[in-house]
Amino acid sequence: MGATKLYEADGHSFILLEGYGHGEMVPTNQVVIHDHNEAILLDPGGHKVHYEVLNEVSALVPVNDLKYLFFSHQDPDIVAAANAWLMLTEAEAYISELWIRFIPHFGVDELLIPRLNPIPDKGMRLPLGNTELLFLPAHFLHSAGNFQVYDPLSRTLFSGDLGASIGPPYVEVTDFDQHVQYMEGFHHRYMPSAKANRLWADMVRGLDIERIVPQHGAYFPDAETSRQFIDWVAALPGAVELMESVYRVPE
Ligand code: FE
Prior knowledge:
Layout (H helix, E strand, L loop, with lengths): L1 E8 L2 E9 L7 E8 L2 E5 L4 H14 L5 E5 L5 H4 L2 H7 L3 E5 L19 E4 L4 E5 L2 E7 L9 E5 L4 E5 L15 H15 L3 H11 L6 E4 L8 H12 L4 H4 L9
Parallel strand pairs: 4-5, 5-6, 6-7, 11-12
Antiparallel strand pairs: 1-2, 2-3, 3-4, 8-9, 9-10, 10-11
Helix pairs in contact: 5-6
């Protein structure tokens, strides 16, 4: 666990909080993007990591600067602590319009619900400080209402569950082929559609990408490993096809 500044220049920084979670919990990565006096926290994580992440974030940016929270999708390792984050900050939260009415089941206070803002299916741009971020549509990768964040200044793509790796003994991917073993099982089960994989690859090939940071495991630290990852996703089979044989009534 720890915070690493992956980019810092001219009042803009992209900070990775890596490997939060212990015991049986899948470790999560959180990201803070800070531009002048405004910051956004991406995929803040669940209850068990909330205080650690909050402490780390407050050490990095004044809490009053935390203007936005971004939830890539509705999973508990992302949104479970939504109420606490909304209580302790003034931040506006963004999540797919599909999940706005589901998140309150995690126990979001009625008074805080107006601060849950829907992201439309086609994505959007969010002004942050002197710059703006892109919320890119990444539906079915893996959630039905799913977004990723591209930061044009650091040229970094935050890819949520896409690119997740489980258990690599390092934080930066240096040898892509060696790294595939830590991603394969997860992607063959959680990424349902080969077509969505390919559409995503075609979309992000239009962006200038220097690194890709997923929500779990190691990140792709340069343009070359990022390109290898995008090519790998473009050819990735869909979980639905891989799992056809399980659609049988259990004996
Ligand atoms: Fe997920």
